[in-house]
């Protein structure tokens, strides 16, 4: 992924993570793995963990510590009502921007 794509992704990564958590609870390593499976190979685990801390502090997720077979308990993040409200707003904003960008793109042809 190029520098431009990485910069654009940073702007929407919070929405992407909340969308993933709306499907099912997950811990940071799972989220990073899913992103990499989708081709977002330049996303560092540290970026995801910092984002998870931010959305936890903002009250958008609930956190449960779950025992791990490989060391200390893992934090499992689950989207809550405030997070769903935020995600709904994210999708409204995304739709607005995507429509306008598509209009611009079509105008270039």
In short:
It contains four helices and two strands, in the order H-H-H-E-E-H.
Entry keywords:
109 residues, mainly alpha, Arc Repressor Mutant, subunit A, two-stranded antiparallel sheet, 4 helices, 11% strand
Plain-language structure description:
By secondary structure, this protein is mainly alpha-helical. It has a single domain (3-108), classed as Winged helix-like DNA-binding domain superfamily/Winged helix DNA-binding domain (Arc Repressor Mutant, subunit A), CATH 1.10.10.10. It has helices at residues 3-23, 28-37, 45-57, 81-108, and strands at 61-66, 74-79. It has a two-stranded antiparallel ribbon with strand order 1-2. Helix 1 packs antiparallel against helix 4 (81-108) and helix 2 (28-37) crosses helix 3. The longest helix is centred in the last third of the chain and has 28 residues, at 81-108. The protein is globular. It starts with a helix and ends with a helix.
